[in-house]
Design brief:
By secondary structure, the chain is mainly β. It is 13% helix and 41% strand. β4 and β5 form a beta hairpin.
Amino acid sequence: MAGVLRAGPEQDVRSGRAPGRGAPDPETYKDVLGRFCTGLTVVTSLHDEEPVGFTCQAFSALSLDPPEVLISVQRTSTTWPRIRQYGRFGVGVLAAGQDELARALARSGTDKLRDVAWRPSSTGLPRPEGLLAWIECELVREVDAGDHLLAIAAVSTLEAGPATTPLLYFRGDFLATGGAS
């Protein structure tokens, strides 16, 4: 290694900011972080026996042992409290061409799955058709994270869909990759 590693500036753990520096303005924040390409998922569950769900771009594998995933949920979500109450949910990884599904579950309000083609999973959760992958989970805990909540969930079921290309999100728009390898 050519250079010497040096410790970065001291961090205020509670705010996440370096001492003496202000937060970036929201537009710059969105512009810069929007340049990080992410996959898109939909999170679905049941509430009073009715299907509910939302689009989620902040999804991640968290732990192999035990198998856990993490989703980031806006505090203002009206859907998440209903999913939290049920305690179990599915995460569908979207494939290229599922832009309309992502848009349908991203809009505000109820009955988002009304015009979405789905079928019950083996455990009864609403599973949209044509997914790249399906992950069923049980909520383990939530962590406060600014204007979001981090939901940590134990994975109970995994299913791979057809080997196709994912639907990606980049700079505020959908993007399909060139092909699967």
